[in-house]
């Protein structure tokens, strides 16, 4: 019996084939050669391990299969996505899209050298936080500011600075686990501080905090519960009373507000989200929040507050490991500039613009898009439907936002297959499956993406 391995074409034969030659014109030559060798090796192993007769594709079929496989493997893992989920701050999709001004700032600063740690006036070395500190202080009323790579890092370095080998008092009702298995007790343990829980899950009184204070207390911490909400028989201590208690005992008070609003979200019918400026005004020593959530900027953790405490954080040995780069600083600075005019911020920061868009505008877009998409032979129906979007990103739990979406029902495939094909298509599209249909929520799809959305659906096969 003839050895089936003899039927395998050589690497050179495959490289000369039309499918591989076509691929070489657009892909890296070395990657293609490596891919062909890997595919042949894998096929050899299959032939050798096969119990019975193994059907080897003819050279042209094999070349096409290898070309398709290489093309799939070479596609970048990080791709732009059209977010039709209705989750405005979708953690899996990178949270807040950046404003055009922030993108332009990244492009300008990233293209060359920049004055990251150099004072151009004196020529002396400077701190990189100076790039954004003045704006952060102006917008929040704080004395000083620092920036690290995310809010979990901000929490950890602040606790390590203020309370390493000491105790930190926290209400038991605020010790929740949020996305990515983030747990405050574990962050606190890493910081070197000891957690002291007070109160119960649903009720914590001022006396609970007062009774826990002793000579080992390093700080009192209030934590925004993110996407967790306790309703019903509940009670918590007003911020002003907590701050007064801490200062009466000469203990620093830290307010971790999480998502970091710089404007009042009640204007979007989303009340209750703490504002950084309110915490500063109520005399908190340090206030911590994210840059890539409600603020609508790049991923970072922002620390604002009293100068003596912020400067201690800046001198912490861990700060260098957690600092942000020039691109983050450029994007954050450009985003903060927009907040000098709240109307300009709402108009130009995508997160705020998405929340501010009137329902009627979304409906008009949906009425225009539905007929264009409905023409595809693979689709049974495309209907305009009322939907409920959410803010996401651990912000404003339990509140939904009225929205409009497109409900797409496929004809000759399952809804799951339609969703997968759209994810892997020419423009990656992610929606949500409801009632045997795929919902594409227009609250989270920018109008500039409408053409790409139609093109991607029309390209389905």
Structural account:
- By secondary structure, the chain is an alpha/beta fold.
- Helices cover 41% and strands 18% of the residues.
- It contains 19 helices and 16 strands.
- Strands 3-11-10-9-8-4-7 form a seven-stranded mixed beta sheet, sandwiched between helices. The chain has a five-stranded mixed beta sheet with strand order 2-12-13-16-15.
- The mean pLDDT is 90.
SSE inventory with pairings:
Blueprint: H1 11-15, H2 18-24, H3 29-49, H4 59-74, E1 81-83, E2 87-89, H5 100-110, H6 130-140, E3 144-148, H7 151-163, E4 167-171, E5 177-178, E6 182-183, H8 184-191, E7 194-198, H9 206-212, E8 217-223, H10 239-248, E9 253-258, H11 276-281, E10 286-290, E11 301-305, H12 307-314, H13 319-322, H14 326-338, H15 342-348, H16 350-356, H17 359-374, E12 379-392, E13 400-410, H18 415-423, E14 428-430, E15 432-434, E16 437-441, H19 450-458
Parallel strand pairs: 1-14, 2-12, 4-7, 4-8, 8-9, 9-10
Antiparallel strand pairs: 3-11, 5-6, 10-11, 12-13, 13-16, 15-16
Percent range for helical residues? 40-55%
Cross-sheet strand order for the largest sheet: 3-11-10-9-8-4-7
Which class of secondary structure composition applies to the elements? Answer: alpha/beta
**Terminal Cα span:** 42 Å
Total DSSP E strands: 16
Number of helices: 19
State the major sheet. Answer: 7 strands, mixed
Which descriptor suits the 3D outline?
Answer: globular
What are the low-pLDDT stretches, counting only 5+ consecutive residues below 50?
A: none
> Over the alpha carbons, how many angstroms does the gyration radius reach?
27 Å
């Amino acid at each position: 019996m003839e050895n089936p391995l003899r039927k395998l074409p050589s690497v050179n034969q495959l490289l000369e084939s039309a499918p591989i030659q076509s691929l070489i014109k657009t892909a890296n030559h070395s990657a293609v050669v490596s891919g062909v060798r890997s595919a042949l090796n894998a096929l050899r192993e299959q032939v050798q391990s096969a119990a019975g007769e193994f059907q080897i594709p003819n050279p042209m079929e094999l070349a096409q299969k290898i070309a398709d496989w290489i093309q799939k493997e070479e596609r970048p893992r990080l791709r732009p996505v059209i977010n039709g989920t209705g989750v405005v701050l979708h953690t899996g999709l990178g949270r807040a899209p950046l404003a055009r001004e922030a993108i332009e700032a990244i492009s300008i600063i990233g293209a060359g050298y920049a004055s990251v740690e150099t004072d151009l006036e004196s020529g002396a070395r400077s701190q990189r936080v100076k790039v954004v500190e003045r704006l952060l202080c102006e917008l929040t009323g704080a004395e000083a500011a620092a920036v690290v790579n995310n809010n979990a890092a901000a929490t950890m370095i602040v606790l390590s600075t203020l309370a390493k080998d000491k105790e930190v008092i926290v209400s038991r009702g605020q010790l929740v686990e949020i996305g990515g298995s983030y747990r405050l007790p574990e962050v606190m343990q890493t910081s070197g501080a000891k957690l002291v829980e007070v109160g119960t899950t649903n009720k914590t009184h001022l006396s609970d905090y007062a009774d826990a204070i002793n000579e080992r207390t390093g700080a009192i911490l209030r934590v925004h519960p993110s996407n967790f909400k306790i309703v019903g028989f509940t009670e918590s201590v007003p911020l002003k009373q907590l701050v007064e208690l801490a200062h009466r005992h000469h203990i620093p008070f830290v307010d971790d507000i999480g998502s970091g609003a710089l404007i009042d979200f009640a204007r979007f019918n989303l009340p209750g989200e703490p504002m950084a400026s309110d915490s500063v005004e109520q005399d908190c020593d340090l206030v911590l929040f994210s840059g890539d959530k409600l603020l609508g900027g790049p991923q970072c953790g922002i620390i604002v507050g009293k100068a003596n405490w912020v400067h201690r954080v800046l001198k912490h040995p861990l700060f260098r490991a957690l600092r942000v780069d020039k691109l983050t600083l450029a994007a954050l600075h450009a985003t903060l500039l927009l907040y000098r005019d709240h109307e300009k911020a709402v108009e130009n920061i995508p997160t705020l613009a998405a929340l501010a868009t009137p329902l009627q505008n979304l409906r008009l877009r949906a009425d225009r898009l539905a007929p264009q998409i409905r023409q595809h032979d693979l689709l049974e129906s495309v209907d305009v439907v009322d939907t409920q979007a959410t803010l996401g990103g651990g912000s404003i739990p339990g509140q939904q936002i009225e929205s409009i979406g497109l409900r797409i029902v496929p004809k000759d495939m399952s809804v799951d297959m339609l969703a997968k094909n759209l994810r892997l298509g020419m423009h990656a599209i992610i929606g949500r499956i409801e009632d045997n249909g795929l919902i594409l929520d227009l609250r989270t799809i920018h109008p500039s993406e409408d053409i790409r959305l139609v093109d991607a659906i029309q390209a389905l096969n």
